[in-house]
Batch of 4 targets.
Target 1
Amino acid sequence: MFVNDCLNVNEKGHLTIGGCDTVDLAKKYGTPLYVLDETTIRETCRSYVNSFKKFYDGNGMPLYASKALSCKEMCRIANEEGLGLDVVSGGEIYTAVQAGFPMEKVHFHGNNKTADEIRFALDSKVGKFVVDNLYELELINQIAEEKGVVANISFRIKPGVDAHTHNFIRTGQIDSKFGFALETGEAFEAVKKALTYNNVALKELHCHIGSQIFDIDPFVTAAEIMLDFMGKIKDELNVVITELNLGGGFGIMYTEEDEPVPYENYMEKVSEAVKAKAKEHNLPVPYIYIEPGRSIAGEAGITLYTVGGKKNIPDVRTYVSVDGGMTDNIRYALYQSAYTVVNASKADKEATEIVTVAGKCCESGDLVQEHTKVAEVEVGDTLAVLSTGAYNYSMASNYNRIPRPAMVMVNNGESRVIIKRESYEDIVRNDI
Ligand code: LLP
């Protein structure tokens, strides 16, 4: 009935998530409220781990891309489910450290790691640096030398694969701020350079072609290109790289129009391609990492709002104003992202009214969704926006000095706060 399996409707006609009545959750914790279903998150983690076992002899590890939703509880769950972590900033490293995450299973990404972040990452014993550019390579080598350690590194490679997704979240093509290009020879030169340094050890190659991708073919093509490059490195430099990181980007369902493939299918096809190419180049079958973010947190999450006002502009549209908006979910304002909106107070009623859900910021573009169909909305109703677990809280802001919402984890009818609601005191915390 809903795009997300954890959702249902109870005898009161209210939307439920993980067995909890969303209208009750809204009353108990206030709105706006992020709600996450623990079972969905854990099941998705397991399906990734199991697909490695089933199709790749367990010779790999999924890393949870924590940019999708970084908080201590997500780090704990990722760890309990046997995943590593992809982090992109000192803040995400700090979160992992605070959660007690095993730091050797952490990969540090980013196209402009600062010297401070590199020091912090080395002190925190982060497992691998995914190096983005030559300046950074030199900086990591230099800081590692100062500390008398050797940093394990990977190179972010642009495989030249064009994934069919939104322009802002495509990253595999040559015109991207991320990584080293293959076709210009830049990547090969970087590998040669790394081999001359004493305080970095090149262990892995990495690529990531984009996000919210439904097609398996570009992932397979990228994997093949990466193996060809590993073959070239072996043939021309006599160096065998034994680990390959294929990034994340697996699409999820925001609306009924989205058709994600089961994640298993991805692993099945990619592992076939990797094994075949390894054989062709006479390389050992590499240890593989993947980096799912959105697909782990996305469909597990919803956002609950309370309807404040309703404004019908004849022959134009009906605005329904909610108590959140672009500060907790910027994705419509930024990418015109489609979402499913449900009137959680009347989830048993047919969706008959077409409304535009507006946020509360002083900004005309602060819309959550335009021209979306919901069961007739009244002031005071609880509205739910589905599939908001990824890139919502993590991209939230305090624009208009609006405090960030709380996040609640639900599990089989139980709920608990995992991120507290910000207070006004938090808002002025750093003001002098
Ligand atoms: N690995 C790397 C190197 C990445 O850059 C990303 C996402 C991922 C993994 C995780 O991709 P996922 O599995 O979540 O698709 N803010 C945008 C998404 C930006 C994605 C950035 N990189 C959005 O809201 O759609």
Note: The first strand starts at residue 7 and ends at 9.
Target 2
Amino acid sequence: MRVLVCGGAGFIGSAFVRLRVREQGDQITVLDKLTYAGRRENLQEVESEIRFVQGAIEDPLAVADAVAGCDAIVNFAAETHVDRSIADPQGFIVTNMQGTHVLLEAARERGLRYLQVSTDEVYGSIEQGSFSESSPLEPSSPYSATKSGADLLVSSYFHTYGLEALICRGSNNYGPHQYPEKLIPLMILNALAGDRLPVYGDGRNVRNWLFVEDFARGIGHALLHGAPGEVYNCGGPDECDNLTVVGRIIELTAADPRLVEFVTDRPGHDRRYSLSSEKLQRLGWRAQEGFEEGLARTVQWYRENEWWWGPIRSGAYREYYERHYGRALKA
Ligand code: NAD
Ligand code: DAU
């Protein structure tokens, strides 16, 4: 396939690109704005085999340039951090909603297949049981509200224009190349540095952890085997609360458990996410990586790849960290 991958320099998008180039021999064009979260080095293993266009998905000219010669669009591009969306939602509305609209128009004009990468957060929080694809959308944060808006727009292009559009909703991803604003890489790097481990609220919020390569495979599966107009949930095999995750990271890094610090809770903090992935499993997808092994692999990757995270922790991330957590990162 010839695929335009939007947001392909980010954490999950780059895992998808590496996988598709290596295992499927796809011809890939990446369109990415290279925000603080987008990194060319995430693509260095496949750099000579792909075309890279730096540009924003909300820019129709950049999209027209990038999409030339492609059969399908897969959209990962988004502002993705819930805490940043609470501090300032504006950029989330532009990228996640307006940008999705520009991509849908490009797909409609050219008759392309379109896959929107979405999230379990559109369903909101669930105390017991799991969300199916027909659960109502009840987003809590500005981030998840913009992702829900984008999903509704994607569905409308299927119903109104007959666009071959699909949606794949993933649960919490973790693995190599994740920007350290998110729970797992933040805790790993702080633990390795002997820095405080800031746990929100009581630390008992539960997430449904999915190794990034499993999500990348699930998206590829939905793209090839899914039916237009359908939504496919792609959830991890294991659920775990935040304190347990942090405890495991402390063990894997041999850090001091007294580094754990309970800090002010996130406003509107969803208590639990849980996805039923039966529909995608009926198409033949299965998560391959359990959380125990996946977390150990992830800790090992961060130990061995300071070249990747060192420049991040010494740049604008430090300012973000100080603003958000009210204390400086340990040098
Ligand atoms: P990320 O923040 O690591 O990467 C986002 C990428 O999008 C970056 O490369 C960034 O430069 C690019 N980007 C941002 N704004 C852009 C714009 N206007 N135009 C073009 N490129 C732009 O994100 P991620 O964690 O890899 O998430 C990828 C997608 O998967 C997102 O749509 C997210 O909502 C979804 N998702 C994430 C998770 C998760 O746990 N991380 C789970 C389920 C779904
Ligand atoms: O569920 C899928 C979503 O997972 C994606 O759509 C989002 O793009 C992605 O950011 C992620 O959202 P979360 O808010 O669940 O992930 P985050 O890593 O920010 O937080 C995970 C949990 O850890 C959550 O309960 C908040 C808590 N947390 C997070 C941070 C950054 C802490 O306790 N301390 C922290 O410092």
Note: Residues 80-82, 119-121, 171-172, 182-183, 186, 198-200, 205, 207, 242, 266, 273 surround DAU (ligand 2) (CB under 6 Å).
Target 3
Amino acid sequence: MKRYIFPQPAPSEITSKSNFLNRREFMKMAGAASIATAGGSLLSPSVQAQDTLKFSKGSPFSISDEPNPLEDIKSYNNFYEFGTGKDDPAKNAGALTTRPWSIKIDGLTNKPSELDIEDLMTKFDLEERIYRLRCVEAWSMVIPWVGIPLADVIKAYEPQGSAKYVSFETLVRPEEMNGQNSLFGGLDWPYVEGLRMDEAMHPLTILAVGVYGDLMPNQNGAPVRLVVPWKYGFKSIKSIVRMSFTEEQPPTTWNIQGPSEYGFYSNVNPNVDHPRWSQKSERIIGSGLFAKKRDTEMFNGYEEQVASLYTGMDLAKNF
Ligand code: MTE
């Protein structure tokens, strides 16, 4: 049942002077609050005890744009499990316990498993990927993720030949995820997503476990979230607890909520508008009140790398 759709960005996303000033105020408060917590971060104590992540830098897939400051990345989020406001995840996600944590791997695989988060972070090679996150709401920011190519994980768990898709599920834990109790703006839980197998295996697709060289802040999807940089941000499912190999195309949360507005593919495409707003340009978070919008690029700038995945497909129909 359709219960909630993304608000139209035009009125709310045009940053009025008062909103802009409120946001700066909020960021100052969020900064002060994080200094007040032990270790200066929203991570749980067991996680804070760890070393910073060991990862390689300089991926050919990274963009050269200057990343947004960490404060932008941690304070302007979509994570409906913690509320629908952009500042709700920063306020509420500290309640999430991220250890112990494991991902159930099941479906059409020769190795059904429980993959422990520590194994994911130590048995696979981590690397930094600087990607632009282009949200369907027509804003974007540049984020230095630390992650593992999803293909490495998929190969290790041996999907069977009949597996055509990979589906993903987010944690359901209403005791810690206040948005899962909400009657207003709630989604059908768990949040679910899916990729076609060739999209999942593409070298650009990563499972991210950190940003700016440190463990993932809770509001960004700790301890592990998907990042698919040529698709709108909502494909990048957070706080993953399950990954299944399937023969049929899996359901996806925003497609369930609004099938005429959010398709399975959700590729960044300036030529196919959302029914209620344009996708031709985007507002850059943190760029200030009078900043010019940025032209949105086909496949978010990765046309050369990914266009061949969609050869012969009508991308207006398969949006
Ligand atoms: N994953 C879950 N589980 N719940 C969500 O509400 N929001 C999506 C995506 N992943 C969402 C989610 C949307 S709409 C976006 S734009 C990105 O996360 C935002 O990621 P960020 O907050 O790290 O920038």
Note: DSSP finds ten helices and twelve strands in the chain.
Target 4
Amino acid sequence: MFCYQCEQTIGGKGCTKFGNCGKDAKVAALQDLLIYQLKGIGFYGQKLIEKGEKIDPEIQKFMMDASFSTLTNVNFDPERFIEYLKEAQKIKEILKFKTKGIEDNIPCAAEYILPDNEDEMLEDARKAGIMYDDSLDADIRSLRQTLIYGMKGMGAYAHHAHVLGKMDETVGEFFFKGFSAVTNDNLTVDELFNLIMKFGKVNLKCMELLDRANTEINGNPEPTEVVITKKKGPFIVVSGHDLRDLKELLEQTECKGVNIYTHSEMLPSHGYPELKKYKHLIGNFGGAWQEQQQEFDDIPGCILMTTNCLQKPRESYKDRIFTTSIVGWPDIAHIEEVNGKKDFTTIINKAIELGGWTEDEPEKKIIVGFGHNAVISIADQIIEAIKAEKIKHFFLIGGCDGSRPGRNYYTEFAEKTPKNTIILTLACGKYRFNKLDFGKIGDFPRLLDLGQCNDAYSAIKIVLALADAFKCDINELPLSMILSWYEQKAVCILLTLLSLGIRDIYLGPTLPAFISPTVLQVLIDKFNIKPISTPEEDLKTILGS
Ligand code: SF4
Ligand code: SF3
């Protein structure tokens, strides 16, 4: 196997025998073969799009879901990948039939026929491997992989928008354009780079679509206090990013005496009016995803994993963790949608049987819910505070968490920011420091949480609104982006920020292994992207003192 798609890749180079995430060589091979199939589908689909034909929305959905399934920490179940592979073959044949007559330059991925036998699939997967063609130019490989990882991230966001009833043709069609492009040997480094910038803009559309889906259905997040301590009674902890799953579970647990806790990226759910109205959405449990094996150990309740990031379940909670949607782990109970509904009876009954915590902990709270609507509604006060020099600078500390010790940088950075600066947080990197007290500036808490990584659109909307208010370029704002990456959703967000021309982003804890030295130099030259150094040094560079 060879995989270098995430930040915890072994030795900062690539996982070759077993993934640090828990992915084994078999699943890695099946995922490679699935991406190969998506390239083949992309080729035929793009030909149809160029002829002015529409692609069936079900096929578009398959492209987003299949891409999402290969994202880090989502699905580890070989059976599910074999199903996807078979479905991919059927779709490819349908599209191939519709494009009858194309004879030249058909890529191997398009011509490939999936065998029935699993062993043969695993054998074939070798030629789908990232490093299979060792004569491929390093920069072309780097840019192709960057685009594929971006599309995996967008697959996740498009999936979330789709389950809430929203689809967009430009977004749906990009999967064909992008997967087709990575099979095209004629594309130059410049052409691939330009396509990646176009992708960044398409991903912005996708994030806007998801924001609309979340807020039209659940209302605009509003500042809300969230209990972060345990309450007596049976419970289910909901992890991941899927607000529809959370809502369905809240509906089905009403009056059942089962408390619902958010975990990790589900924390911002407490700010949505249509979710917080459920009194048994009782609080938030635990920290970021990489703490789950300790936090779930012997837990007297159930866990529902709705999306990434799932780690290998320990024996002590294997019988009480459930997956749903695209997420999967072999031999872990999976709740599937049937006729547009999910039946959560099994997990609810199991939670009741386990009995839950036996007493209340002394209560502690934090505040969430500063999405774009909440922040923009107090824009006048923020602008006044900036003009009066009460607020000197904004730091967007956003992105993923992970287990690398270098990630302490983000906590230390937040702690060292001057008292007259505001910290905006986004995604799961904040769980290391969001329970600390940063104080207030006037009426504003110094730490304002914008939401999940899925809410990156909020950050972009706020930045654009501030630039508009000050009649300046976004790069002239007193705002710095200090980003941490781990998986491929962070890749697509970063590409969107770059496509908007945002410069001087600080990126860590390490740089992606799939970025070649030449591509990195292009990013430095065009966007002045900077690897993080120390909090002191970076703060000094940013604030100039
Ligand atoms: Fe390694 Fe990350 Fe790939 Fe898992 S997803 S195999 S940890 S590079
Ligand atoms: Fe986190 Fe997995 Fe990236 Fe949603 S939950 S940001 S890592």
Note: The first helix runs from residue 25 to 50.
